[in-house]
Automatic annotation (TrEMBL):
Residues 199-232 are annotated as: Disordered. Residues 99-184 form the Large ribosomal subunit protein bL25 beta domain. This is Large ribosomal subunit protein bL25. Residues 222-232 have a biased composition (Basic and acidic residues). This is one of the proteins that binds to the 5S RNA in the ribosome where it forms part of the central protuberance. The keyword Ribonucleoprotein applies. One of its GO terms (cellular component) is ribosome. The gene is rplY. Coiled coil: none annotated. It comes from the Bacteria. It comes from Sphingomonas albertensis. HAMAP family: Ribosomal_bL25_CTC.
Length: 232
């Protein structure tokens, strides 16, 4: 089960771009709490505390208590240059609300997969997360899938995965694939020619960047002028 997180917040008296910029300059992050047929509440959070919560790796599928209000993070906006969080949306939920969350997938027992260990196959992951519909009080932190016994060409579908009790896939109209063991990539002649051309171009570029060697003239006078001569 995913851990419950707690964040302190203060109510925002002013909204708008100017007010939001002022908050961010003071190390705060604007946020809004909505849902449960109540009016949205504008708040702001301490950026350091929010970053600590984000660094847990399971912020988006954790219940977050914001000033005593049970919420589920729905969206975090980041600055395109600095990657600092600039806004957060929280959804109010009840203690046993049914919620849809994206739960990360973790693969285990790779050494016990003949297709990978002996066949040198590659695990091709098509879904790093699975959207599940679960009770808000029982959100899983991750879904573990064993690769034991899998051969090259074998696929893992959602029907092959044992989900936590009470959890069902959000996509229920097809048996979607999560990962496949694919054959190892064999370099072609075209790949080798391309690699040789790239190496030759890089060598030529490196040679052109070399500094010329400075050597004195060969005459016998004492007022030799120094002229740059390229290395052979």
């Amino acid at each position: 089960m995913s851990d419950q997180l707690t964040l302190a917040a203060e109510t925002r008296d002013r909204v708008g771009k100017g007010a939001s910029r002022a908050l961010r300059r003071d190390g705060r992050v604007p946020a809004v709490i909505y849902g449960l047929n109540k009016e949205p509440t504008s708040v702001h959070l301490e950026e350091k505390a929010l970053m600590k919560a984000l660094m847990t790796g399971h912020f988006m599928n954790s219940v977050v208590m914001v000033n005593g209000v049970r919420t589920l993070p729905k969206d975090v906006s980041f600055h395109p240059v600095t990657d600092r969080p600039i806004h957060v949306d929280f959804l109010r939920i009840g203690a046993h609300s049914t919620v849809t969350v994206a739960v990360p997938v973790v693969f285990t027992d790779e050494d016990d997969a003949p297709g990978i260990k002996k066949g040198k196959g590659v695990l091709n992951i098509t879904r790093h997360e699975i959207e599940l519909v679960v009770d808000a009080s029982d959100i899983p932190s991750e879904i573990t899938i064993s690769l034991s016994g899998l051969e090259i060409g074998d696929s893992i579908h959602i029907s092959d995965v044992k989900l936590p009790k009470g959890a069902v896939p959000a996509i229920d109209d097809r048996d979607f694939a999560i990962a496949t063991i694919v054959p190892p990539t064999v370099p072609t002649v075209e790949d080798e020619i391309l690699e040789a051309e790239v190496a030759e171009a890089q060598a030529a570029e490196a040679a052109s960047d070399e500094e010329p060697v400075v050597e004195p003239n060969d005459d016998d006078n004492h007022d030799d002028k120094i002229t740059p001569q390229k290395k052979d």
